[in-house]
Design brief:
Number of strands: 7
CATH architecture of one domain: Sandwich
Helix content: 10-25%
Number of helices: 1
Oligomer: single chain
CATH class of one domain: Mainly Beta
């Protein structure tokens, strides 16, 4: 026999700012909201993205299955990367948007994007002065 347990977060009145679970609870709430958001409503036009970096680049990855390359727009405006896409289903079309703050270490002139198998990858190269460099230690 299975038992279903419903998760009900405690009131914020009783949460302590120093609680080790406070951040986890809000992150879980955010993930569930994103997972169950109806993208057809104007209140939820965002889509999830993955952000990661290596020593040379910052990457933004978004899964956009079924969206044609010409229906995707990638723009850099000041310190923000904006991704927008339009999906047409029959007579209806749905717009998705996402803006991401870009670190100052990114060289905005060299940003590139590629779409492969419904996955958009935006590569944001780091400026040369922002890249880590090895310092040699001399022996005296």
């Amino acid at each position: 026999m299975y038992r279903i347990t419903h998760y009900h977060p405690r009131s914020t009145l009783f949460r302590s700012a120093r609680s080790p679970w406070a951040g986890l609870e809000s992150e879980i709430d955010r993930l569930f909201e994103a997972a169950f958001a109806d993208l057809t409503t104007p209140a939820a036009p965002r889509f999830p993205v993955d952000l990661y970096e290596d020593k040379d680049n910052v990457y933004v990855r978004a899964e956009l299955p079924g969206i044609a390359r010409d229906a995707i727009n990638v723009e850099m405006v000041e310190d923000y990367l904006t991704l927008s896409a339009t999906r047409k289903e029959g007579d209806e079309s749905f717009s998705l948007n996402r803006s991401i703050a870009v670190p100052e270490s990114v060289d905005a002139e060299k940003v590139s994007a590629s779409l492969e198998n419904g996955v958009l990858t935006v590569t944001l190269p780091k400026r040369e002065q922002a890249k880590p460099r090895k310092i040699n230690i001399s022996v005296n």
